[in-house]
Structure formats: C-alpha cells, structure tokens
Amino acid sequence: MNLFFKSKPKIPASTVIEIDARAVIVTVRVHARARSYRLSIPHNGGPVLTLPPHGKWAEAEEFLHRQHNWLAARLKRAPEATPFADGEVVTLRGVEHRIVGTGKIRGRVELAEVDGAPAVLVPGDAAHQARRLTDWLKTEAEADLVRQSAMHAARLGVVVKAVKLREQKSRWGSCSSSGNINYNWRLILAPPFVLDYVAAHEVAHLVEMNHSAAFWATVKRTLPDMERGRAWLKAHGRQLMAYGG
User: Fold this and answer.
1) Pairing mode of beta strands 22-30, 14-19
2) What's 191's DSSP letter?
3) Other beta carbons within 10 Å of 125
4) Which of helix, strand or coil describes residue 170?
5) Which of 28, 137, 166, 221 has most Cβ atoms within 10 angstroms of its Cβ?
C-alpha cells in the first residue's frame, strides 16, 4: 500500500458558510451538464452550490467563499416564507386573501368576505389545513391553465396533449415536443395576466422549441402584451415561491 497516496476529498451533500454571524447551509450537487462552479438560490429553497462532473471540492470551497458578499446580499433580499396557516395572508389571482380556519371537520375550501376583506375558508384540523389549501389551489390552477393553454393553442394552430402541475423550485413551466406541458401550480397566486403569459410562453414552444427571435415573435403573436406578464414574474416570482413554505 502506498502510504503517501492522498485520496481525493469527497464531495459532501452540503456545507456551511457563515453569513452575518449565522450559519447558512448550502446544498452541494454535481450536475452532468455543468461546465463551471455555480452558486444559486432557488425560489423556495436555500443556496445551492453546483459542481461540474470533474469538479474538485477544494476548488468548489474556494469558489463558494469568493461569493460570500454576493450570497449575503441575495439572502437579505430573499422573501420570507409564508406558511398556509390560519391568519396568514396569501394571494389568489393577485388578490390578497386571509386564510381562515373554519374548524369544521368536513367541507370544502371556499372564498368569502370576513370583516369586509377577501378570505379563503379552510376546513379541517390545523395540521391538515395547509394540505387542503394546497390541493384546492392546484385544482384552481389546473382549470385556469388548461383554459388558457387551449386558447393559445387555438390561436397558434397547435395541439396541447396534456397539462400537468408540478412542484418546481425554479421553473414556471416546461414543454415537450410531444405536446405535454408542465406548469408550476403557484401561478394561481399571481395576477391572471401573469398566468396567461406563462401559458402563452409554453404553448409557443410547440411552434418553436427554443428561445430564438422567432420564438418570442410567436409568443407575441398570441399574446401581444407578453412583456407585462414577463416583467411581473421577473420582479415578483420569488415571492410566489415563498408561499406555502
């Protein structure tokens, strides 16, 4: 045995970096298509350090510490998570609604006015209210996204084979060449013109499976006011991802 052989340091699943006197857990992952070290903050999660397949942990650590100031600034701007709990305020189609637990064992989630303000009434025990509200929001999101996807498909002369909802951390939608579209269910929290933009965006991929000038022209053909939804999502998307956390 070569006693002088030094084994390559293993890449951990996570590491810790100190930011403003507090320990911040950074998830570490190796991505097959990554070409360099990358630090990112998903919409509804903690920091992620991505390494290329042949990356070295020592280099990754050095890269992470060089990004200390950038990470500190981004974490300060990150929105706080808003749980789906009694008394919290959640947006629905862009309008703030207070979550009100009814305490009833049976019943459906319903919209109402409480003390003159919009509210969403959620039945069930407190431990199950978040799940019930999430399930209801997904149902609402599916109905809106199926409708808007069909409308844009008719305008562009394409066929949407299926619409499915996903719990995505950093994407609002994805489209396959076979006609299947996945959407992030949290789009139901945004104003309708934002959901409509994402639907137009994904359906347009059935015409152009890229982000070329021709693709953006296709989106604009079915949704002339596309920039409104695109700009809103860029400015407020992270807040949407914080709901239900």
Assistant:
1) antiparallel
2) -
3) 10
4) coil
5) 137
- Strands 48-51, 22-30: pairing is parallel
Contact 124, 175 (CB under 8 A): no
In angstroms, rounded to a whole number, what is the distance separating the alpha carbons of residues 156 and 28?
A: 41
Task: Tell me the chain's radius of gyration from C-alpha atoms.
Answer: 22
| Beta-carbon contacts of residue 84 (< 8 Å; ≥ 6 apart) | 90, 99, 122, 129, 130, 133, 134, 243, 244
Residues contacting 119, CB < 8 A, separation 6+:
97, 98, 99, 100, 111, 112, 113
pLDDT digits (tens, 9 = 90+) for 13-26: 999 999 888 898 99
pLDDT in tens, 219-234: 999 999 999 999 999 9
**Residues 100, 122 contacting (CB under 8 angstroms):** yes
The stretch 93-117 carries a mean pLDDT of 94
Query: Which tokens belong to 119?
Result: 């509210």
Q: What is the mean pLDDT of the chain?
A: 91
**What is the predicted pLDDT for the residue at 162?**
97
**What number is the average pLDDT over the span 88-95?**
96
pTM of the predicted model, to two decimals?
0.74
Which helix H or strand E contains 217, and what residues bound it?
Answer: helix 213-222
